[in-house]
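step 4 of 6: structure.
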Amino acid sequence: MPTVVTRFAPSPTGYLHVGGARTALFNWLLAKHTGGKFLLRIEDTDLARSTEDAVRQLLEDLKWLGLNWDNAELVYQSKRLDVYNRIIDKMLGEGKAYEAWETNAELDVLKEAATRAKRAYRYVKPNYTPEQIEKYKDEGRTPVIRFAMPVKEYKFRDVALDKDVTISPYEVQDFVIRKTDGMPTYHFGVVVDDAEMGVTHVLRGFEHLLNTMNHIALQEALGYERPIYAHVSTMLNPENGEKLSKRDRDRRIRKRVQDWMRNNKKTAQDLSAATGVTADRLASWIATDTMQLDLTEQPKIMAVVGLKETDLPEIMIHDFRKNGYTPEVLLNFLALQGWSPGGDLEQMTINEMIEKFSIDRLVSNNPKFNREKLKSFSTDWFGKAPMDRQLAAIKDWLSVNPNSMLNKASDAELTHILKMNAGFHVLSELDEKNRFFFVADEAIEYDAKTVDKVLKKDDGQGLKVLGEVRAHLTEVADWTAGKLEASLEDFVRSSGLVLGKVAQPLRVAVSGSSVSPPIFETLAFLGKDRTLKRIDRCLKVTA
RNA sequence: GCCCCCAUCGUCUAGUGGCCCAGGACUAUCGGUUCUCAGCCGAUCAACAGGGGUUCGACUCCCCUUGGGGGUACCA
């Protein structure tokens, strides 16, 4: 049996999308499972959208996921124009392709006419007279090259769907293979490059199902072998049942903005004043579902309406990384979106996934992306992962979250944080819950509601306890979690209180809020001096 | 409009004609553990879209209806 060769062929438009990552994963798993090769090719034929920066971001995400590719030299389609042109010239000579002179505007008119007549539009090759062609040239037109696609029924076996897919001759049309800017179209580049790279299996998104007809027609015309095709399901947004899209993040913000305006009787002008984004731009953004703000505008608006980064749905792999997921968790979860190993097995290591993967267990249903379950996988994973792996994970997280207070922590402190917060879901949660350790003692902000509830209620019962326990704590010589626990239990016994009545005032005093890691560990981590300092300041500030 | 694909608990899925009055996971609900938030432990709720066939027997095979998704570019 020949070696399996798969590939991932994204077009570089920025950070990697989850959908793309899943496609890459399936191709990678198939290659690993069979001992084959997984190749990476950059489809940068859309000059308007492809940038070097986008390629950089794409590779960064792929590397972060650990989906390493086997071709030492990356294949860029934009660098292979001579290859494509040689083949196109030959096709032209053999009458398998031809020049077409219509402008986009002219084609649009034809399409509209077809729509009005309730017919499907289909390109028909015009019979240009020599005079017409002369005229077009004089106008400065450049022709596209179209493939003269033989009119017949096309059929291929889809191994994911496990059925034959066909199109009738009626749907065949001469599609463009070279654009006026001289670049090949997607269809042409894919077919030529897959053949030249020896790709044996094409696993790609379902939206390519009909494209495959064009591709097999081209393969026949060019004498290429046909690879095995598998089209995988589309991951859906659980909120609207549509394809997961970058726009979903804007939608979440937009909804919040609308609520904010309604509840606070605010207008786009108010928001403009608060953010510096022009009112016109905001107004049209609020009114249109499809419009997207740019990455500098988003945070400003989110700050005003009270949204955090972690409130937005993650769409790009980079979003998941920034919110504190690990590649292991993400890959495991992604594999289950459109594939199942069978039986009750869900949580797997990468190696288990490689071992179990097979095309015929691909699921054809379109899954709705369930972030709750992903989060639960993450919790479980951190509960089992070795500490050195967790430490590496949090350091990676900090590298993409330079503003986090936890950047001040040493490796030993990070390890300590990881341990005393056992049971956390994702790394970003650690930042929220532990940042107070790294804030200056005199900068702790006390949440008013919490102070009322824990310290001032019942005639300042909490404050009274805080004063007493402070005195008790000065006596503790060996400031460790164990000794603190013993000492505080001692205090609880002698004062006739329950631990909660002591722990909560302490917690508020040192953290400013009613949430922190376990109290003994928290105090131990903080150290005696800083603990007492914070208690004193709390007594003073809140009294 | 036309073409294609899909259809089991709210969600992801197991199930390849009798093993299924349908199993697991997430969520939800209830209880337990606990110094907070989590977590953890135990229990409970919850599905074969509808209608026709085929068969001794259909969640499983076929057809129709309905519902959902996708495609219909000089974007990939």
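step 5 of 6: annotate
 - Strands of chain A lie at 5-8, 37-42, 75-76, 97-100, 144-147, 154-158, 163-167, 176-178, 201-205, 228-232.
 - Residues 448-474 of chain A form the longest helix (27 residues).
step 6 of 6: archive
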